[in-house]
Structure formats: C-alpha cells, structure tokens
Amino acid sequence: MANNRSQIKRIRQTEKKRIFNRNFRNRSRTLIKAARLAISKQNVETAEETVKRAIRDLDKNASRGVLHKRNAARRKGRLMKQLAALKADKS
To answer: What residues contact residue 6 under an 8 Å CB cut-off, 6+ apart?
Structure first.
C-alpha cells in the first residue's frame, strides 16, 4: 500500500484512467471481432465496411494513447491481410 500522498494520488489517477480506457479497448475488440466475422462469412462489401470501421477506431485509440501505436498498426495489418486474402479468393 502506498504510504505518501503523491503515491496515493497516482493510484487514484491510474485507476480512473484504467476505467476510462477500458471502454475504448472493449469497443475496439468488438469492432475487430465483427470485422473478422464478416471476413469469415465471405461477403466482401460487408467485410470492407467493418474493417474500415475497426481501423478508424484503432487509429483513434492509438492517438488517444489507449493503445500503443505499434499495437494498433499490428492489428490493422492483420485485418487488412485477411481482407486481402478474401478479395484474392473472390477474384
């Protein structure tokens, strides 16, 4: 347990941030899940739309500092790779 005032305040601040950021992380995970589901259903138009929405959300979270920018880039890259594979199969 913290035993000086600055440590106690820091604990309060980090807890507030954690709860605030949790909402953004959960929304990103939900959008990524929806994009992967659309890709697995082999529907290119819906998949493009949901991937675009997930990427926009990941970019926002990276700029806010909720996610690290490389973490967001990795997730975006994986989604785009899956979408490209779907498009290649449909062609």
So the answer is: none
Q: pLDDT band at residue 3, thresholds of 50, 70 and 90?
A: confident
Q: What is the CA radius of gyration of the chain?
A: 18
Distance CA 52, CA 37 (A): 14
* Domain span holding position 9: 5-90
Q: What is the pLDDT of residues 47-77, one digit of tens each?
A: 999 999 999 999 999 999 999 999 999 999 9
User: Which residue is it, tokens 């990795």?
Assistant: 74
Residue type, 40: S
CATH number of the structural domain spanning residue 63? 1.20.58.110
Q: Given this model, what pLDDT does residue 47 score? A: 96
Name the DSSP class of 80.
H
Domain count of the fold of the chain: 1
